[in-house]
């Protein structure tokens, strides 16, 4: 009984420590974010007009949501396009981050410099900077469409599959640009792995490849889930995301306005929540 009591006490203590770390975010959310979210949900059921005298609303029920799916074909098209991009980009970003973390976790010279180089894009990828880089073509590989690989992809695959793959190759630098934080998370996990486990595996005759699949990857699975969630949220809220841009454009559109903009924002929010739930379920099942 005493051991159970101590274990419960330790569990409660860890829970309190975790709550203390996230409490600033929780407090900030309730003070600054909860009320605007509720108000935006209210506006999504309204026809909103901004006048010199203030905001005037007229209740329209589900009309804004119906318009998004039935009348506004651009929104549905952009959502489907974004989901295809996410299905390709997110696994590649996480896989690339894991590979780079494994490489720079080795005992090599100038390891700190390499870590800085891979994290540097995170510091400079603000909206205006990325926008300028995109306009100058820095994030694309020059003349990549002239490579024979593109023709092979076009001829051997259907357009529904080939177009996302071609987009991925065109934007490969942009995709890899989002890997800095994920690399650091994987590095933190790798540095906490007990090296005696690798020594025991080596004594038992396990190859480095077997040690990765049987030791490294299972121990990093919680961080894989964290990185998947972080990558999806980061890409989904990126300032130049085409759906985010569409929401901003509709805010000041005289035809649609704030009401429709908040409606598609909530549709987008629910969609991303569903995607996160699916990925979490898949990765937790894989972990178990």
TrEMBL record:
Keywords recorded for this protein, A-Z: Cell membrane, Membrane, Transmembrane, Transmembrane helix, Transport
SUPFAM superfamilies in the record: MetI-like (SSF161098)
PROSITE patterns xref list: ABC_TM1
GO BP: any one term: transmembrane transport
Gene3D superfamilies, A to Z: MetI-like
InterPro entries with a match to the protein in the record: MetI-like, MetI-like_sf, UgpAE/MalFG_permease
Sequence ranges assigned to domain ABC transmembrane type-1 in this UniProt record: 79-279
Transmembrane segments: 15-34, 86-105, 112-130, 167-190, 211-237, 257-282
Membrane topology label: Multi-pass membrane protein
Family: Belongs to the binding-protein-dependent transport system permease family.
Name the record gives this protein: Carbohydrate ABC transporter membrane protein 1 (CUT1 family)
Protein's organism: Paenibacillus taihuensis
